[in-house]
Amino acid sequence: MSTSLLYAFLGTLFPFLLTTIGAGMVIFMRRLPSKAFERLLLGFASGVMIASSIWSLLIPAINSSQQQGSFGWLVASIGFLSGGCFLLLTDYLLEHLPSFQSHKHKRTFLFIFAVTMHNIPEGMAVGVAFALAIQGTTISLASAIALSIGIALQNLPEGMTISLPLFQSGYSKIKAFFYGSLTGIVEPIAGTLTVFCFQQLNILLPFLLSFAAGAMIYVVCEELIPEKEGKDHCHKKTIGVMIGFTIMMILDVALA
What we know:
This protein has 10 helices and no strands. The relative contact order is 0.25. With 256 residues, it is mainly α. Helix 2 packs parallel to helix 4 and helix 2 runs antiparallel to helix 9. It has helices at 2-24, 35-67, 72-94, 103-135, 141-168, 173-182, 186-196, 198-201, 205-224, 236-254.
């Protein structure tokens, strides 16, 4: 078990490191990004989150649920709607807190929360993949490494899409980098804990994956895509969505 824990930790450490590298890009910026670049960045983040929700979360949730003998669509639907409802409730509660009366602060919090929630099941998936590969069961070590690389590559722009909007919102570069990096630390934690109590948590993995997908899609639809100021540069966010979605589709399908 100690060997499985070690490999699970090492396998999930790489995605966390690339999240940190992506978040660290904010340190090299000399001025605030323009409104046009901010819209493009939000659109790119939307594309990344939509693609991750489909290929990295919902499809694996359905497949995993079917392997457990359940109706994949049912578990995925319940988890997906639960994730959206949870953030809907969170959104409602934040509206009644004085410190979150600012729409920008609320949007930033929900964005960070959704990405963090999305990273938890990803860490669980990578941790389990490495544990099974070391045990020589259903997954090869090459497949586990490919999964880790694929998630790490998507975490690189994720770290950037967290830290740059925080910097735009008035946070210092250090704080923006810290919070962006912090969203990725849950991956090695979740991966290691999952392997430690794999038998108990394995049955919950499909629900957790779809729950994270629901949380991410909620943020995209509620906070990112509607954030358009007039008609000026209104196509930039759509372009960002298309680019982000295409990149994630290529990464997830090619490295599967």
